[in-house]
Amino acid sequence: MSDNPLHIPKRRKEVMLWVHPDGQVFCDVFLATEERGEENPFDLFNRDEPFLVVFRKGPEQPCFYNRNAIIRVEYPESESSGYPPDSGEPPLTCHLHLMDGSLIEGSIHESLPTDRARLFDYLNRREERFLRVLLEEGRTCLVNKSYINHVTLTGEESGPTER
User: What residue numbers bound the domain in which 126 lies?
Assistant: First the structure.
């Protein structure tokens, strides 16, 4: 614990950013550690403030990135990542086609209200700038919705009655 009353306790988490127009950026982000629980990357990147601070690697320096310029974020999944508990619903498996030609294949495991549990509803949630996709490799990818060209469902749920 710090003796400085203005100090906000934070922990560093290693992430990989794809930023327009820089490309890949290896860095650490700073997550608040609070009495009610630790902040997770999903909450950090979905804040309203236009900029966030990261600590870049190579060259090592603090840097302030505009959230609108961040295309996507990847990091290893962990129990403290804030991923919602299993809702009992099958995950929404999908392909995200990004404007730069990238294809992200993964699944969405969000706990959604029963009357708004379709992929279409999740994509249109206004309160979140980034959506969370679990990748096969056990990594989490946060994707900036403004860089998504289109999304397609895969697997059984891709029929006309889209969940």
Answer: 92-158
